[in-house]
Design brief:
The chain contains 24 helices and 28 strands. It is an alpha+beta fold and about 900 residues long. Helix 2 runs parallel beside helix 8, helix 8 packs across helix 9 and helix 17 crosses helix 22.
Amino acid sequence: MLRTLWKWMKRVAALGLSLGVIGVIVAIGTYFYFDRDLPSVEQLKTYKPPQVTKVYCADGSVCAEFYRERRTWVDINTLPPHVKNAFLAAEDADFYHHQGLDYVGMLRAAIKAGTGGKMTGASTITQQVVKNILLTQERTLSRKIREWILTPRLERALTKDQILNLYVNQIYFGHNRYGIEEAALFYFGKHAKDLTIGEAAVLAGTPQSPHRINPLTNIVRAKQRQRYVLSQLAEHGFVPKEVIAQELDKPIVLAPRPPPRVGAYYVEEVRRALVERYGEQAVLEGGMRVEIALVPRFQAAADAAVQQGLEALDRRMGYRGALGTFDPKRFDALRPLIATRIAEAGRRRQDEVLIADLMRLTQPDAAGSDAESLPLVASGEDSEAIVESGRPGTAVTRSADGGTSVVAAPAALSADEDQEPPPSPDERLARDVALRPLHEGARVVGYVTRVDDRGRFALVDLVSRTARIDFDTVTWARPRGVGKSTAPPKKMSDVLHPGDLIRIRVGAVGKAKDPAQPLEATLDQIPEVQGALVAIDPSNRHVVAMTGGYDFELSPFNRATQARRQPGSAFKPFVYGAALDSRRYTPLSVVNDAPEAIRDPWTGKLWKPRNYENGFDGPMTLRAALTQSKNTVSVRLIEALTPQVVIDFARRGGIHADLPENLTLALGTGEVQVLDLANAYATLQSLGRYADPITVIRVIGPDGRVLEEHQPAFTEALPPATAYLTTSLMQSVVEMGTATAVKSLGRPAAGKTGTANDYRDAWFSGYTTDYVATAWVGFDDHSSLGHGETGSRAALPIWLDFMKAAHEGLPVRDFEVPPGVEFVRIDPLSGLLAGSAVPGRIEPFLEGTAPTAEALPPDTARPEDFFMLDQRGGL
């Protein structure tokens, strides 16, 4: 018996030894197999994670940030002990005592993987650093083995403090914030070194599931997680228990919502220019400092002016109808899920009210959504919206609210999220609905629940609040479209129906604290028509504001720099300027405004130019012709001068586009950029001095070295006296022509309206002694704006709204008169010198071009008058 037992024991021992040897061989083979292409941990000694490039406005404020990962590096030695310990308590309390691996956790993870589960858990802080920086985020055994091999190497290569430093600066905290510093600034409005124990515990608990338990998306889950971290701080002796007890029931107080940033089109133009010069990696990861000419106050005024002007034009066109409809039963099922999200979401203010923006329900797949495929729109600072399912990994260009360009880097889901049961279609859809803070002017999509024709109102559900739209506010909403009635609506049901998803604008919110009181609201819609505005300080050519469209989020195409459109009559000042510069014409030279068939010698085509009003007024002075924007006179001028002379004058002024070398150039048929036209007008304003427009003032590298710096390089491109006389002609356009609305500025101004053929483009470009601005309005597809939508009606109000804001508090000054200009008292009827017996006015001339003959007294008959009187039926 003993012999048999001994025999079996030897066999078992031999088998065990064999298995052990095989296991060792397999382990060694596995080690060398996975060790073949592993990255070196030595690179982490000099590792520099992607840094944010910060863009500073003219007032010194940060107006934009360019990044792949929004991160600002901080040295862990500058952080107080409770901040560092909070992360140890949350993730790896024994971090300073182990050698990088948790062997019990490793065995548990391996068993789970061997039974068909996913590799989760068992990650120390060192392992997380290896995974996040050196390896991929895939959840496979092969990646885990590589992680196990690299972790001890990292422990030998770096100190514990260096590893922890990498960790707290690398991890993701939700809402596009990477690293402890950016997270502290975003959620609590303070630097990481100033975090309290409770705030540090909130942030330390967030990386476990950054999309779901950050305090902005779900403050209830964030508080639960914070309590766990606080308890771990006490349990492991990092913080006294009595201190922790005081923190457990304190509410999480988020930082106030920062004011929205402005100038999304502007900063995107800057980003594109920087990428062209330095490459995308340097701009998105290099941590540069970029100083730009944008003035936030002016940019806000420009954005508002463009939006308001386009909305006014859009309303004149009518209402396009509801964004869609939604089944009432489906909405009743979805509503409580959204309400729960609202109840659990964090608030930036104690009294902040969140409402649902139901835009997501208008999308075709609203019956169910894939959270991973949705664009990232959630960010408490970058946007007002909170979207629970927003994740990094989506390419994003900053919203108009934040004025920041972003390309987010991929990040994996946490183990906690990965283990959650899959949400139902309703739950996914509810997570995708954006939540926005309630304030006057908030624009959201709501669900129409009631339409009362007798009471002349409609009720709109925003989940946490109900809005009321009165019929008096929708009388503009006549149906838009071919074949539809153009009559205004007569009752509310002509416009809205229960089940409609519509866009509204919230009015006064004084009673918002009482959910039973409906909010005041008006029907709203996003204009299809687009616009642009550029404003320049002519003294230094700084582009102080640039708006390239109605809404950057909806259309990032910058119409101020990327589009070329026909300026129409806004080009005429360069025709008249060239005429004055030739010294063959003066402001009082008479040209006949009469119909004429012209064979264009440059194209060979027969052409009959017409005026806007289709009438003709006969002989008139150049000043009167520009004031009334006479097309026939412009054509006669360019015919006499030749197109090439006018093109040369415009080129010297700053219009760099290819211009047609034919007579149609007189009517502004050459397509130009808004920025170019604005800068060319700045040349006229500056008495002929040209310089390139400046958006980027200075670029400084991460090492403090100045990479580029820009100052205006002025050249005298046009004669100062000619530029002044052209300005004088445009002053008449403001005083008595197509731009008399500009007189409300209450200061000297000059400018010119422009309307392209068939009302496809509307312009106004003009200036004062302080600023130059150009406004454009039109459809991207060159559709007509509609009859009567001229530059004076569609574009000038945008220009005027901006200029009124820009000139607040500025003294009134007149245009400077340069040498080479003489002022003469003339008879406005004859254009001759006004004698003592003739009433006259002062008129500027280029020196040597003023009339020398004196007008006859009023009662004196001139021989040439007899024929004119006979033709008019006189005696």
